[in-house]
Amino acid sequence: MSVERTLALLKPGVLERRIVGEILGRLERKGFAIVALKLMRISRSLAETHYAEHREKPFYGPLCDYMTSGPVVAMTLERKDAVEVLRSLVGATDPDKALPGTIRGDYGVATRENIVHASDSASSARREIGLFFRAEEIVSGDAQGDGTR
Hints:
Radius of gyration: 14 Å
Shape: globular
Distance between the termini: 17 Å
CATH architecture: 2-Layer Sandwich
Number of domains: 1
CATH superfamily: Nucleoside diphosphate kinase-like domain
């Protein structure tokens, strides 16, 4: 168990529904330190690069369309085992299969317009953080990884 960083994106539907604060609160209560945060519009090029591993899948185009349809909240989160803990907190991609108590289980409506992205591995997190944040935009975290500072 080590302190690590991961990327989370709150997708356009979260902003449309005005539930950003609720989700940020859940992340903080789970012990995540927010070490970078920005509201942004993702360019088509960035969306395509971010989701490049899905290029040949049928949902790739609609996913890129959705991600560029409105603003997103991009954040770098830090805590012990950040990738694993965030993936667990976010829940299954299909909101109908996501357990109650997970973000997707409580707030998700449609798989195609999933409300949150969470890096799926430490290497993906490093790559994705680099796509969305310059090093100087990340505040050095002092989280203990257990919800204390």
